Amino acid sequence: MLDIIMDVSRQQEDLSYQKPKGRDHMNLLTFLFRLFFALAHAKEAADVSGAPDGEYRIYNDKKSIYDASTVDTQSAAPPGWGGPLPYRYIDVSRYQGKITLDGWRKVKAAGYKGVMLKTVSTNRKLSKRADGLYIDPTFEANYRNAKAAGLDVGVYYYTYATSETMADAELALVRQAVYGKELTMPVCVDVEENKLKPMSTLDLTNLTAYALEQVEKMGFYAQLYTYTGYSYELDMQRLAGRWDVWLADYTGKTPKVDYIYHAHQHTSKGSVPGISDNVDLNVTTRNYPKIIRKKGLTRLREGA
User: What is the pTM of this model?
Assistant: First the structure.
């Protein structure tokens, strides 16, 4: 049903974390339940691409997933946006190439207020580590120049973790990347990797909750990123009831989900002044910079 293209170049703590029971926890009924949801939401999954530079992108050749406007303006929200005039921001990584200080000033002048920068992912061709982890090569320059241009900055990392040990390794590198930096947008855990799907819903949800808890312990505003179709792999009632959600949905309509989300990535084909390649466009009515500054969540906590 779906063609998957892999770009290889490219505290309620007791409530939020439950003891994993392993893959054997998925019995026949669980399997049938997930199969039913996968079939029922196949069209939605086909309409949604993976995300802010996920290693996997999902396309449906019969119907373009880019029905939403790819060039939004200072005075218009994207199709399907039901809220008031939103805070508009972008997310970028090495796939957008080098963005100069002048480029970031053009982004700001076009009406975008913030940016989410990719920090960490896994790619054995780019990494010098045995585990394949690396810091995005454009991160430092993008952080420096986006801040100089007056944009709010947050970060995300793309997780491949299937255990707490792997999650800890990813988070340690994120900690290294953001050390000494001021962040006025969230620190986001990007959960969309197909290799995580063999995990049970409980185990994947537990691991996601664990990672979000660690981000909070670092002293930041934790956020979960996923896309509409992938969210059926997770217990979103539990996660969205505890943490902020940034949802990718490119259908051009209000996402059909039964959980709360506060940020919407509505296209990956955005055209933004100052950046030569396509860009993910996002909207939110939540004032993240005000919330984050008020709560004192702008910097890595001492000793974290």
Answer: 0.76
Range 88-113 average pLDDT: 95
Angle at 195 between CA 264 and CA 32, to 5 degrees: 85
C-beta neighbour count of 120 within 10 angstroms: 25
Contact 264, 286 (CB under 8 A): no
Tell me the average pLDDT across 170-190: 98
- 238: Cβ–Cβ under 8 A, 6 or more apart, which residues? 16, 205, 209
- How far, in Å, CA of 117 to CA of 107, rounded? 14
Place of tokens 């309620």: 12
Strands (E) across the chain are located at: 3-6, 56-59, 87-92, 114-118, 120-122, 133-135, 152-158, 187-190, 222-227, 244-248, 263-270, 279-284
The 3-class SS string of 261-276 reads CCEEEEEEEECCCCCC
Residue 236's closest CA among 221, 268, 269, 258? 258
